[in-house]
Amino acid sequence: FDKARGLAMAVALCGSSASALIMPLLSTLVIDTYGWRAAVPIINGMVALVVLPILWWGLHSRADEKRTDETLPLHAAPVLTGVTNVRDAVFSWQFFKIAGAASLFTAIGIGLVTSMVPVMTSLGFPRTEAAAIAGLVGLASFIGRISTGFLIDRFNSDVVAGTLVLFPVISCLLLLNVDGSVMVASIAVFLLGLSLGAEVDVVAYLAAEKFGTARYGTIFGFINAGWFLATAIGPLLISLSYDMNGNYEQVIKI
Question: For residue 98, what are the contacts with CB-CB under 8 A and spacing of at least 6?
Fold first, then answer.
């Protein structure tokens, strides 16, 4: 995709937004009914029932058959542009800026999102209400993903990215001043979800825009490596901060 690459990426990446909307409520229901030990295999089993059939039977099309049919003429290969030496890309200042910003943002954002139900309960909301508020992350992520894909196809991607990074700042300020208001808490979570949904789009788009498509898979893979490491570290650090301080206020302030 060239003309609408941002929107195409946004649509392809919407699955995680849908899961972020559903899973807080579903996991809370399963834990309350069966306990957290039973919830792990139950939820994983649900995921397997959906994902495995798609992987085995749902990712094939007539286009795949044409590509593997030796009796048919080969289609012209897509023109690949941009950096051809991966080393030049991953040691560039642009790469460190994109990968570093994505990792730092992910560590904080994912850390807060995965702890959002206990954060809400620590602010005085009942568990069911806390799960419903946390579920807004998924809806907001979906909206943020699609709208960001639309915007970066039409406006400067650096400006769009810089603007969206400000949303979690507003979200944290609201969380520090919730005072039992469901509306304020919902707006805070919604803004955080918007930024998280937008982040994936922006980083994927920027990697293609700055480095081209010739070695896109490998370059974006390096960015993803830092991304996933941050996904593992962020929730751990936020939970550790809670154990040390007895609340999430210090994390939100930081």
Answer: 203, 206, 207, 210, 223
Tens of pLDDT, residue by residue over 197-235, are 787 778 888 888 888 878 888 888 898 888 888 888 888
Over residues 54-74, the mean pLDDT reads 67
Question: What is the rounded distance in angstroms from the CA atom of residue 92 to the CA atom of residue 4?
Answer: 27
Neighbours of 252 (CB within 10 A): 20
* Strand intervals (E) in the chain: none
Name the residue type at position 155.
F
Contact 28, 131 (CB under 8 A): yes
Q: Residues near 82 by Cβ (< 8 Å), separated by ≥ 6?
A: 208, 211, 212, 213, 214, 215, 216
Three-state DSSP class for residue 229: helix
C-alpha neighbours within 13 Å on the C-beta side of residue 129: 13
Q: State pLDDT tens for residues 151-185.
A: 887 888 788 888 887 888 888 889 888 888 889 98
The CA–CA distances, whole Å, from 169 to 69, 91, 148, 224 equal 53, 30, 18, 24
What Rg, from alpha-carbon coordinates, does the chain have? 20
